[in-house]
Amino acid sequence: MSKPDLVHWSPDSWRARTALQQPRYEDSELLASCLREIAGRPALVHQGEVLALRQQIAEAGEGKRFILQAGDCAERFVDCSPKSISDKLKIILQMSLILVYGLRRPVVRIGRIAGQYAKPRSDDLETLGGISLPSFRGDIINGIAFEEEARRHDPRRLVQAHTLSCYTLNSLRALVEGGFADVRHPEMWKLDHVSEHHQPRLYTDLSDRVRESTRFMELLGGANPDFMRRVEFFTSHEGLLLDYESALTHWVSVPGAEKPGWFNLGAHMLWLGERTRQLDGAHAEYLRGIENPLGIKVGPTADPAEIVSLVQCLNPNNVPGRITVITRMGAGRVRGALPGLVKALHSAKVFVTYSCDPMHGNAIKTQNGIKTRDFASILAELNETQAVHKESGSLLGGVHFELTGENVTECIGGGGGLAEEHLTQNYQTACDPRLNYSQSMEMAYLISDGFAK
Ligand code: PEP
Ligand code: CO
Q1: pLDDT band at 193, cuts 50/70/90?
Q2: CA atoms of 112 and 105, how far apart (whole Å)
Q3: Can you tell me whether residue 189 is helix, strand or coil?
Q4: Which residues pair with 373 in a beta bridge?
């Protein structure tokens, strides 16, 4: 392969590179008209918000904040409903309250939401009963039903995904701006399906304490009501579908800067997946040209030198907050892989913020062939990662989870004792297994408790 041209960049320069994991559309004219429609629509986010997030991620890298990035593995079109959206916001708000309290640091809340519709797949085809059809790649590309028509890659789904991202984000903004996230009333964040009796005691105690202290601040006259009434909430998704992402890329003026810049205005943050992070690949080429903060997923087999080159390619000016290295090694593999990576990044003097995704390295299949993850392994990876960072003199600035506020039965373990035989009770995910409400809350407590030490 020829040497990448690092000087010239455009939202379409990735087209000269190999792009893995892309859909194959039969009707290129239909695709072009769908992309034109998306490109002509108003932006979902503002460049000022994107830069604010980048700054906050930089502060997380210095230990002044902590990032909670969480949401579905893949959002489904049917989940764009008022209840599903507010439940996702509620669980992230509840967890962030626990983390703020335990870690004594502001929490940066980033949803895997309002655009997380595409999935990378290991196999192009799925075979069932002797019939092979294209794999399901997320609702933005094809349908999950094992039928020829559903599995066809349809560009009209790109437009639909964009419309639903817009509804979702609008609803999140209305909830956050309208006072739903008011820290003086955390009781509003309670999930309906979790009975009074099952609200974790510690959480109820914590909300009471928060209410008392905010009341006290108000009495002192020192409260800033707006600060208490609303929280910041950011969106993110995997930067996977390059046709779609480049349609969302705009040349816009930057608050306080002399020159305009290229921003992806479809989400605040994008991440580069473990399967598509080749240094000379199309994904790195696209992402290097936009100003948004970027995540890079790094698995246990990554070559540290290659990750250093990738970070340098994506962040040539070494801007703090631009790159979050999201490690996803798998429990038991952190000690073997993370110290070398941290050492290489440190020696190269590149600014990165570290986060840990303890989900994607810990997938297992039950004897009945059900994809699951064990709460104990998820926690073990987090603890190993935190320990290695402590020993290496680096900081773990955040965590990345696949979870939901719903009462699903997708991951085993946790205090509720969810076992393999319970998995079929409410297994909903369109892709990977997520922590359910009580598993997520328990995880937040364990992080608050363990990491504060
Ligand atoms: C994901 O975050 O959904 C994902 C596919 O992760 P990874 O690229 O780390 O496997
Ligand atoms: Co996933």
Answers
A1: low
A2: 22
A3: helix
A4: 363
Protein residues within 5 Å, CB atom, of ion ligand 2: 73, 432
Q: Residue 398, exposed/middle/buried by CB under 10 A (0-12, 13-18, 19+)?
A: buried
Rounded distance between C-alpha atoms, residue 96 and residue 365, angstroms: 30
Contacts 24+ apart (CB under 8 A), 414-420: 414/375, 414/438, 414/439, 414/442, 414/443, 415/442, 418/375, 420/366, 420/367, 420/368, 420/370, 420/372
CA–centroid distance, 297 to ligand 1, in Å, is 7
Q: What is the pLDDT of residue 228?
A: 62
Ligand 1, atom nearest to 432 Cα: 3
Rounded to the nearest 10°, the torsion over CA 238, 45, 282, 289 is: -130
pLDDT of residue 450: 83
Ligand 1: residues within 6 Å at CB?
Answer: 73, 120, 238, 273-275, 297, 328, 360
Say if pTM beats, i.e. exceeds, 0.85: yes
Of 1, 445, 39, 96, the closest CA to residue 249 belongs to 39
d(CA 358, CA 381): 6
Q: Which atom of ligand 1 is nearest to the CA of 73?
A: 3
Q: 280: closest CA among 6, 11, 9, 10?
A: 6
* 158 CA to centre of ligand 2 in angstroms: 20
| For the CA of 298, the nearest ligand | 1
Ligand 1 atom with the smallest distance to the CA of 326 is 9
